[in-house]
Sequence to fold (302 residues):
Amino acid sequence: MGKWTRRGFITAGVIGSSALVIGVAIRPGHRVAELTGSVADEGETLVNAWVKIDTQNRITAIVPHSEMGQGAQTALTQMLADELDACWEDVSFIEAPAEDGFANYALGKGFILGDTEVPAVLMGSVDGLFLQLTKAFHLQITGGSSSIRATGVYGMRVAGAAAREMLLAEAALTWQVPVDALQTKEGKIIHKATGKQAAFAEFVVQAGRKAPPAQPRLKAVTEFSIMGQSKPRHDIPAKVDGSAAFGIDVVVDGMKYAAITAAPVFGGSIIRLDTVKAESIPGVLKVVDLGNAVAVVAEGYW
Fold:
């Protein structure tokens, strides 16, 4: 018998433990109901955790990574859109909300299992195990060159392919034809024999009521039409015209602002603090002594 590798050992443990819980609630199952309120507006249907489609056939990828200048959000959207067979002009993305329901289990799965083959019967349990682990750690991180090779490969591509299979299954049921009589292209489902076609939007509501397949078929490289292509980054126009919302732009009801100045030397502390003049300035609410720093709380930054 060959020498055990670290990855092989971990994989065996994960698969072995998962085998004990098949049929138990560890599988992700159908999570749309719990996630819809966080990301879907009126007229939009969440197909699975990472993609929604509206009545106008506009497709939105829900990306669990921050954009840090490297174009990852656009690239991840390309990966999902290609597997879905979407029309790229109808595709956009939003950043996933910071909620445990959108914990990035594909990231953990990619780092630990990588390309390890998991039997189809265990895939749902393995995904459920990683989902529970990443929820426990509130895992949504961006770094380590992980966006494409982990989330993209094991999350966004799978989500796009799963959504495509769900839409095809619903179209086959609606049209009373075999699934293999249908094909997808640029956001439409086409009956190959007759040329009859319809937009994804016509089937998305019913499709979104079913649990996504855990192991959909992914495209071969020769089938790529969006992946590997140079596409304009979706985040650039808003950054250029000033409409992009950054953390400093966020405003909520009753919000106050604070500016802080720390002691100029590490380990330093405040000896004396006179707050009278500062607190007399219109808009300043309080000057706070933090021991090694001073914070000014006010109605606005100015």
In short: Residues 14-25 have pLDDT under 50 and may be disordered. Strands lie at 44-48, 51-54, 59-63, 91-95, 182-185, 188-191, 197-199, 257-262, 284-289, 293-298. The longest helix spans residues 147-175.
